[in-house]
Design brief:
- By secondary structure, this protein is α/β, with parallel strands linked by helices.
- The chain folds into 2 domains: 135 residues, Response regulator (Rossmann fold, 3-Layer(aba) Sandwich); 61 residues, Arc Repressor Mutant, subunit A.
- It has a 5-stranded parallel sheet with strand order 2-1-3-4-5, sandwiched between helices.
- Helix 4 links the parallel strand 4 and strand 5.
- Helix 2 runs parallel beside helix 3, helix 4 packs across helix 6 and helix 8 packs across helix 9.
- The protein is globular.
- It starts with a strand and ends in a 5-residue tail after the last helix.
Length: 210
């Protein structure tokens, strides 16, 4: 039996996932969480084999939560389920310790297959992600500008590049405008850019957003 914790800040998504997992007699949903703090608290108090984790929860991002899970419970598998396409976050998620990455557009049967593969110690990589990983290996060893960003800076960069204002980004991540402004300044400095328009052009040119 694979004991799964579902972590997503949208109740309707958690309900839908529970219905999908209920179709598999070898999977048991042992809990729910709507933010990173609840995930960590649950894992300290309960036995769990895998966390089905949304990457875009309020507060700490799924990437940060993944890293913490692997520090405190290294044997618990993490399967990221996100609205964001693989090219935006999948490589970072795997580096953070996730064993797989699926978009929420994936078919239910693919989700069940991924859970079973991860539960047996494997990794779940879609064909799209496999191609991205291959290109990462083939690329010159020098880091691209966006790879110099921390996970949180990268998250903020994508939101700014998609056209969101500093205020909107702060609301989305549950962070203050001052904090987002500081992140923005650091991002522009690290990427040697001057404004959001340059961030948008860069993100589109590198297929980070569409």
């Amino acid at each position: 039996m694979v004991r799964v914790l579902i972590a997503d800040d949208h109740p309707i998504v958690r309900t839908g996932l529970k219905q999908i997992l209920a179709d598999d007699p070898d999977i048991e949903v042992v809990g729910e969480a709507e933010n990173g703090g609840e995930v960590i608290e649950f894992l300290w108090k309960n036995v769990c084999d895998m966390v089905l984790l949304d990457i875009g929860m309020p507060g700490r991002s799924g990437l940060e939560v993944t890293s913490e899970i692997k520090q405190i419970k290294p044997n618990v598998g993490v399967l990221i389920l996100s609205i964001y396409p693989e090219e935006q976050y999948a490589v970072r998620a795997l580096r953070a310790g996730a064993s797989g990455y699926l978009t929420k557009a994936s078919a239910p049967i693919e989700l069940l297959q991924a859970i079973h593969r991860v539960s047996h110690g494997g990794r779940y990589v879609s064909q799209t992600l496999a191609e991205i990983l291959a290109s990462e290996i083939d690329r010159h060893s020098e880091k691209q500008p966006h790879e110099k960003l921390s996970d949180r800076e990268y998250q903020v960069m994508l939101l700014l590049a998609s056209g969101k204002t500093v205020t909107e980004v702060g609301q989305s991540l549950n962070l203050s405008v001052k904090t987002i402004s500081t992140y923005r300044s650091n991002i522009l400095a690290k990427m040697n850019m001057k404004n959001n328009a340059q961030l948008t052009f860069y993100a589109v040119e590198n297929s980070l957003i569409k």
